[in-house]
What does this fold into?
Amino acid sequence: MTDVELLSGVYGAPPPHLADTPRGARQLSPLHPGASDLGAAPPGSYASIVMLAPPGTLERRYAMAQALTALAHGAEFTAIAPKDKGGARMKTELEDFSCTVAETSKSHHRLCVVQRPETLTGVDEALSAGAPRFVEETGLWSQPGVFSWDRIDPGSILLVSRLPQFKGHGADLGCGLGFLAHGVLRSPAVERLELIDIDRRAIEAAKRNVMDPRAHLHWADATGGDPHLSKLDFVVMNPPFHSGASEDKALGQAFIRNAARMLRPGGVCWLVANRHLPYEAVLAAAFKSVRLDHDAGGFKIYEAKA
Ligand SMILES: C[S@@+](CC[C@H](N)C(=O)[O-])C[C@H]1O[C@@H](n2cnc3c(N)ncnc32)[C@H](O)[C@@H]1O
It folds into this structure.
């Protein structure tokens, strides 16, 4: 491969005032539907990568090890993270991979710039520690970085215990590893279930976890209008309330509005939410009727009718 053919990559959305992303850089984050899979890049195929490094240690070391492997010798790697969300540890983590690191500090972030050394150390260990795996405790395939990757979320356990026997065609918005889908598909009257998540790693794990011909998986943004998903009989969800590492109530509210748009008149949406989240007004505005089904252990479960 010649220099001319080498690629530029960007992972996530590094703040533009902290680092320039080359025009035409390929998106590499699993949280961007349609992005290239950094793990599938031939070694040495990238001329530069700029990364907003993920907050979880296993996930961050995995992504940085993948990036360094994908870069050509001498190519530049820039990793950025908020200081209190992994940024303070990045320099040492990169030095552990045998990189010489130039670190700067700006706007509560740390910025580490390295030239990919000829020989890397410790990347195999980081790649294996962050890889997809079967988690015995949950009985599910998973991967560090996916929501609640090594324990079942207590809100989801509660929701599954309250769900009715659904019928017809439905959707699981923000399906994660597919735990809610298992509960839904216990009903033989369910004809088809769309599982939608923005995280490629979750969708890949859910493919292994939900081996049911009625399940159809989509790596997509559940807040975007999908004309194919309309007139549904039911929707289930444990809506996200984080974007990256920060709380984002608007995201859960957008899930609620989109669920209402996807349902046929009389279709139902069942959802669980941490009780502090401000969803009542949005539910009341988007649906014909809303019933609080359960309020316990810090969670609320609603049944909303379109
Ligand atoms: C609270 S978790 C629930 C996961 C799973 N349903 C469960 O019960 O364990 C929310 C899920 O929504 C996904 N998500 C976040 N933003 C999304 C978006 N815009 N579109 C689709 N999925 C999204 C996350 O990746 C995460 O898997």
Notes: Residues 3-129 form a domain with the Rossmann fold fold (CATH 3.40.50.150).
